[in-house]
Predict the structure of DUF488 domain-containing protein.
Amino acid sequence: MGTVSVRRVYEPSPAGTYRILVDRVWPRGVSKEKAGADLWLKEVGPSAELRKWFGHDPERFDEFASRYRAELDGSGALAELKAAVSEHEKVDLVYSARDEEHNQAVVLRDVLTGRGGRAR
């Protein structure tokens, strides 16, 4: 596996970087062209229930990450993400949340790079 980074969908990626949108819902106000996503894996995003519970509250992030990893365990969507990442040297997991430290892309990066515990 190459390099896996996280980046807001509103920011461009370096040349040669494969962009995977990991939001379940398409980012508001962003055209497909502007997003520059090579792949949209909406099923790898957290469930609507988990997103609503989290509400982007940084104090809930550790519990969110734990619950999200539980959702990902054995998930076909995670397997699809791993396969896509394995085919590219540089990958950006792109997301639309404002908080750059507390979001699902951070959890996914950690799972993919072995820093996230569970989720196989």
Notes: The chain has one domain: 3-112. The two ends are 15 Å apart (CA to CA). The helical segments are 32-35, 48-54, 61-72, 76-86, 104-112. Residues 3-112 form one domain.
